[in-house]
């Protein structure tokens, strides 16, 4: 019931292995899980199968290695190349944020905290990776066969087919398919997602299970982007695009540069302000032979309109530019990285535009802006929102509801069960309803909570809790938490104080708040 923190533990006989080991993103309550213990012993895990490089699927691998995992991690060549950039970058962000937090904690008399892992831990984890090819069977342990299929989500992404010998009299293996993240039908870079059929279990993502996008071609996508860019740039302001550093950024740049070259949008400077996205773009160039029309992408990245900013000083210089320009910066949900600096400097400007082009998880700054907040808190400061906040849901790397349902149907027959994961409540419920309406047995479509366990050999598999307590109660997953409520309360209090007629009125407001707090203690 959340779209981050993907991690699945499978046990068969003496074998224990993971599919993905991702970091939680979103509310502070959810992100706190990254600091806690794993719900298993890392040293007891034999190997890891990784679907793709996104941090919500890979981001806790350095922690896994740090705490005792010593086996191989299987991933495609492109995924490994991307992670050579992404895991050290993730560690750098954690080290930087913890350093800032510890400075604040020191002033408040609070104890220091340590990062989840360091750059050194990330570099050590990279040594555990072992490359695999698409469409090729391998046997990571006796009685277990694995095959990777192109999922069309990002460069190197895969759905993972697993065959396990059950030890039962039946001659047939238990056949599982983990969807990973399934790509949309229209993408600049990848063919239609592929995967096998005739399965026992399908474990399927449901990110956009409740959403239906209009039919789209590459040209119609560029038309929509051109309309948004032209509207933003005519105000002589900045167009800020929070973007995931991997895949979304490269697709966006490809389209923006094509539109500018054909003069369908003004030929203004386009800043790529993300060291990670810059390095990831180099990986895409290196793997251009794996992309649809990769040579055109390689050529576009050499455009003089594209300017990259590696250092913090170069990033800050962007603010001094007069006139229209475009800034593409990470992170995609506005929760970390340089995008927060650009938002803090521009959200209060009426001639600025923020264009959301990817999924915004509940509790993130991106979702709060998307929901129409009139003010937000960034790095402890209140910022009024006067900029235009726009959403263009055409660059998602995920299939929409009908696309997911088509993909699931094409995997049939699925004889024992479909398990819906990697989706908030609305997405999971929407995909469940779509699949049921197409004649699939609703009783064999499962929607587990965090820390649910299934016995896949049971005649009628039922979800149950693991023996130890849940890490987080279901009602606290995939929702805004008290930290979000507190931030909203601070903004509301400051707004009421600003609107008050005089200092006497402001003191009355503060006395009422104080009385409410005192009554709460009783």
Given the C-alpha coordinates, what overall shape results? globular
Spatial strand sequence of the major β-sheet: 6-7-8-9-10-19-20
CATH architecture of the largest domain: 4-Layer Sandwich
Weakly predicted, low-confidence segments: none
How would you characterize this protein structure?
- This protein has 522 residues and is of the alpha/beta class.
- The protein has helices at 28-31, 55-58, 61-66, 77-108, 119-126, 218-233, 248-261, 275-286, 294-300, 312-317, 339-346, 365-370, 401-409, 425-437, 482-499, 503-521, and strands spanning 7-12, 15-21, 47-49, 73-76, 129-132, 138-141, 144-150, 158-164, 174-178, 199-205, 238-242, 270-273, 306-308, 325-329, 353-356, 375-378, 381-384, 388-391, 414-421, 445-446, 452-453, 464-465.
- It folds into 3 domains: 7-211 and 397-476, Ribonuclease Z/Hydroxyacylglutathione hydrolase-like (Metallo-beta-lactamase, Chain A), CATH 3.60.15; 218-391, Rossmann fold (3-Layer(aba) Sandwich), CATH 3.40.50; 483-521, no CATH class.
- Strand 2, helix 1 and strand 3 (47-49) form a beta-alpha-beta unit.
- It is globular.
- 44% of the residues are buried.
What's a quick, concise take on this entry?
By secondary structure, the protein is α/β, with parallel strands linked by helices. 35% of the residues lie in helices and 19% in strands.
Overview features:
single chain; 522 residues; alpha/beta; Metallo-beta-lactamase, Chain A; Rossmann fold; seven-stranded mixed sheet; six-stranded parallel sheet; 22 strands; 35% helix; 19% strand; globular
């Amino acid at each position: 019931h959340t779209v981050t923190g993907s991690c699945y533990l499978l046990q068969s006989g003496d074998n224990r292995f993971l599919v993905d080991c991702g970091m939680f993103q979103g509310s502070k309550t959810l992100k706190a899980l990254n600091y806690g213990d794993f719900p298993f012993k890392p040293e007891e895990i034999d190997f890891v199968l990784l679907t793709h490089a996104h941090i919500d699927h890979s981001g806790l691998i350095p922690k896994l290695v740090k705490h005792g995992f010593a086996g191989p991690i299987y991933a495609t060549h492109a995924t490994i190349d991307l992670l050579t950039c992404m895991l050290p970058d993730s560690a750098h962000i954690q080290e930087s944020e913890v350093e800032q937090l510890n400075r604040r904690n020191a002033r408040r008399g609070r104890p220091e905290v340590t990062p989840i892992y360091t750059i050194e831990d990330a570099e050590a984890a990279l040594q555990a990776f072992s490359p695999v090819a698409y469409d090729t069977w391998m046997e990571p342990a006796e009685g277990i066969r694995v095959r990777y299929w192109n999922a069309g989500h990002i460069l190197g992404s895969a759905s993972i087919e697993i065959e396990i010998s059950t030890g039962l009299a039946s001659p047939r293996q238990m056949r599982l398919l983990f969807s990973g993240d399934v790509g949309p039908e229209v993408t600049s870079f990848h063919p239609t997602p592929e995967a096998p059929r005739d399965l026992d279990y399908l474990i399927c993502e449901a990110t956009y299970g409740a959403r239906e996008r209009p039919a789209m071609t590459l040209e119609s996508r560029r038309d929509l982007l051109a309309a948004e860019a032209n509207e933003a740039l005519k105000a002589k302001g900045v167009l800020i695009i929070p973007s995931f550093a991997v895949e979304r950024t490269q697709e966006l740049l490809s389209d923006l540069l094509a539109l500018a070259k054909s003069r369908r949008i003004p030929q203004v400077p386009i800043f790529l302000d993300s060291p990670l996205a810059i390095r990831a773009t180099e990986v895409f160039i290196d793997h251009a032979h794996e992309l649809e029309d990769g040579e055109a992408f390689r050529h576009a990245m050499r455009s003089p309109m594209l300017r990259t900013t590696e250092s913090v000083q170069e990033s800050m210089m962007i603010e001094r530019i007069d006139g229209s320009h475009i800034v593409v910066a990470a992170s995609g949900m506005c929760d970390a990285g340089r995008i927060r600096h650009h938002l803090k400097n521009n959200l209060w400007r009426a001639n600025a535009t923020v264009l959301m082009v990817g999924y915004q998880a509940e509790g993130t700054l991106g979702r709060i802006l998307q929901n129409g907040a009139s003010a937000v808190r960034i790095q402890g400061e209140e910022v009024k929102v006067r900029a235009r906040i726009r959403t263009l849901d055409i660059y998602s790397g995920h299939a929409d509801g009908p696309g997911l349902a088509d993909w699931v149907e094409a995997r049939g027959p699925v004889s024992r069960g479909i398990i819906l994961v990697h989706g908030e409540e609305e997405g999971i419920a929407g995909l469940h309803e779509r699949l049921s309406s197409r004649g699939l047995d609703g009783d064999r479509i499962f929607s587990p909570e965090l820390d649910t366990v299934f016995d896949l050999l049971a005649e009628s598999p039922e979800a149950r809790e693991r023996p130890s307590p849940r890490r987080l109660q279901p009602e606290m997953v995939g929702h805004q938490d008290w930290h979000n409520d507190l931030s909203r309360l601070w903004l509301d209090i400051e707004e009421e104080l600003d609107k008050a007629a005089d200092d006497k009125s402001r003191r009355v407001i503060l006395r009422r708040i104080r009385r409410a707090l005192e009554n709460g203690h009783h």
